[in-house]
Write a structure and sequence with these properties.
The chain is of the alpha+beta class. It is built from six helices and six strands; from the N terminus they run H-H-E-E-E-H-E-E-E-H-H-H. A three-stranded antiparallel β-sheet has the order 1-2-3. Strands 4-5-6 form a three-stranded antiparallel β-sheet.
Length: 149
């Protein structure tokens, strides 16, 4: 894995991050968000998840199935993770995938459109428990009607 900060030829995304660093520091963004800065990230192939270590010493992990652009990727592509120079994002160069640390911690695993599609798929899921709950609700008269405005 090449380090985008010390590499003589930086990717465009790394150069853009570095150019915004002085302004972000001047505004106190980097200082106040130190707990949201990633210091390391790795792919745990055995558990099929990404583990992220933060500047405050804590770490979190998320399963690939939840993240946009990562679910169907090969292990070799997932293993190459770059951390943005400010530590606020993760980048998979082989997959052209980017996720923000703050978004991940907030449970946002992709773009708004992708998250809507992901939620819609989850809402369409069926199970015996869901069917039983719907029958029980129907026996009570179903969903209450909205009050007229």
């Amino acid at each position: 894995m090449t380090d985008p900060i010390t590499s003589p030829k930086r990717p465009d995304w790394a150069q853009a991050q570095l150019q915004s660093a002085p302004q972000a520091a001047a505004q106190g963004v980097v200082h106040t968000a130190a707990h949201l800065q990633a210091t390391a990230a790795r792919y745990d192939a055995r558990r099929k998840r990404v583990v992220v270590e933060l500047a405050n010493g804590s770490q979190f992990a998320f399963p690939l199935a939840l993240a946009q652009g990562l679910a169907q990727a090969r292990a070799a592509d997932l293993a190459e993770i770059e951390i943005t120079p400010l530590g606020t994002g993760l980048h998979w160069p082989r997959l052209n995938a980017d996720l923000s640390v703050e978004g991940l911690l907030a449970g946002l695993f992709g773009s708004r459109a992708w998250m809507r599609q992901h939620a819609a798929r989850a809402g369409r899921a069926t199970s015996p428990a869901k069917a039983d709950a719907a029958r029980a609700n129907g026996a009570k008269g179903g969903r209450p009607r909205k009050a007229a405005a």
